[in-house]
């Protein structure tokens, strides 16, 4: 029997480490690649893609276990929230949405959640709405295990508590981004998938897709180093907040356009995205550092005095690390097609520190 866990539990397993030196000519990328391959082999990592971009220099390489198919497309889990937030902020720049808009302005059906009329777009983006997470509802877990997962918006919102809890305080919830989907659909007159993919296609990033359920993509799950399960046929139903699939080169291009070239959003909008609030009890230790602040669809990682902004993601099949070094203007993209305690540890405790220590 396969047991599906909520994304927030998976996120708690993630560990990272980093350094703040600039990429410079004496840095030998072949040494980094050699070290990463050694780790990947020792930890039985199936596939991994790595890209480091300073705007002037770029280091890109991948590793594929000889016993698995070459991986060209990866799921990114909750890192999708950053991509979704950027779309929302483009709509804000276009005066189609406002951070202070009540989400009920964009909902067709009558809701039974007490106080929902007080929840704004901002509350949804930064997880301060007080809405419970539908993917933590025991009925959701039971239905997924039984092969009858909630698929529609109506099915998922029915699993949300009728009352808000601690509105104004940080509480990571996939329900927030489920509701943002409805706001985007309302102002674009498109399905969320259509609006999302049209936006990224216009940016020249047509390799960023929403909701790809193609089971031909190989993935693996391991709670311990002794046993690795082929999870390729597992289907995940976390909602759009965790269901973007990407060509990794394009995910790195997205970071370049957003933070280095600044051609997607205006500087003042980036300031709004990075309006930090404390994550309270959801703080994520990252080696010697800590993710302790959340913006509007983005995380703030402080490590040894260096500041990184971006997002981490994890599902039962994939893991992703997408961050930007503000001081040194370096973007880092790392994706892999494995999950579970063993692979989470290998990815975030061994591979990511190796990369960040090299920078």
Structure description:
It contains eleven helices and 15 strands. The chain is an alpha+beta fold and 359 residues long. The longest helix has 18 residues. It is globular. The chain starts with 6 loop residues before the first helix and ends with a helix. The N terminus is likely disordered.
Q: State the share of residues found in helices, binned by percent.
A: 25-40%
Number of helices: 11
Average of pLDDT: 87
Number of strands: 15
Task: Return the string of H and E elements.
Answer: HHEEEHHHHHHEEEEHHEEEEEEEEH
* Computed structural class: alpha+beta
Globally, the shape reads globular
| Rg calc | 19 Å
* Distance N to C terminus: 42 Å
Sheet-strand content, in percent, reads 15-25%
Search tags:
359 residues; 32% helix; 20% strand; three-stranded antiparallel sheet; single chain
Indicate the topology.
Elements: H1 7-11, H2 29-42, E1 47-53, E2 58-64, E3 74-75, H3 80-93, H4 121-125, H5 138-145, H6 153-157, H7 174-188, H8 192-202, E4 208-210, E5 220-224, E6 227-230, E7 244-246, H9 248-260, H10 267-273, E8 277-278, E9 284-286, E10 289-294, E11 299-303, E12 306-314, E13 319-325, E14 330-336, E15 338-339, H11 341-358
Parallel strand pairs: 5-15
Antiparallel strand pairs: 1-2, 1-14, 3-7, 4-7, 5-6, 8-10, 9-10, 10-11, 11-12, 12-13, 13-14
Helix pairs in contact: 2-11, 3-7
């Amino acid at each position: 029997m396969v047991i599906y866990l909520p994304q927030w539990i998976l996120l708690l397993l993630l560990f990272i480490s980093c350094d703040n030196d600039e990429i410079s000519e004496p840095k030998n990328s072949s040494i980094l690649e050699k070290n990463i391959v050694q780790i990947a082999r020792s930890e039985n990592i199936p596939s991994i893609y790595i890209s480091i971009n300073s705007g002037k220099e770029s280091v890109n390489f991948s590793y594929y276990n000889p016993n698995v198919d070459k991986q060209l497309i990866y799921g990114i889990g909750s890192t999708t929230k950053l991509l979704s937030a950027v779309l929302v902020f483009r709509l804000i720049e276009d005066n189609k949405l406002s951070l202070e808009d009540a989400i009920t302005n964009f909902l067709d059906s009558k809701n039974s959640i007490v106080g929902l009329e007080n929840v704004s777009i901002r509350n949804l983006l930064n997880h301060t709405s007080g809405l419970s997470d539908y993917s933590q509802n025991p009925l959701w877990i039971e239905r997924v295990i039984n092969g009858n997962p909630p698929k529609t918006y109506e099915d998922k919102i029915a699993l949300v508590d009728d009352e808000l809890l601690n509105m104004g305080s940080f509480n990571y919830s996939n329900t927030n981004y489920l509701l943002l989907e409805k706001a985007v659909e309302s102002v674009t007159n498109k399905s969320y998938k259509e609006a999302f993919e049209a936006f990224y296609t216009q940016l020249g990033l047509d390799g960023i897709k929403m909701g790809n359920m193609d089971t031909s993509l190989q993935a693996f799950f391991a709670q311990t180093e002794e046993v690795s399960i082929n999870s390729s046929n597992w289907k995940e139903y976390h909602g759009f907040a965790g269901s973007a699939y990407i060509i990794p080169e394009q995910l790195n291009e997205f970071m370049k356009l957003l933070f280095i070239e600044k051609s997607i959003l205006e500087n003042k909008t980036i300031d709004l995205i990075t309006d930090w609030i404390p994550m309270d009890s959801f703080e994520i230790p990252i080696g010697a550092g800590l993710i302790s602040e959340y913006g509007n669809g983005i995380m703030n990682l402080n490590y040894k005095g260096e500041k990184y902004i971006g997002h981490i993601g994890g599902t039962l099949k994939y893991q992703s690390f997408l961050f930007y070094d503000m001081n040194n203007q370096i973007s880092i993209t790392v994706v892999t097609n494995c999950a579970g305690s063993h692979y989470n540890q290998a990815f975030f405790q061994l591979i990511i520190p190796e990369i960040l220590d090299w920078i």
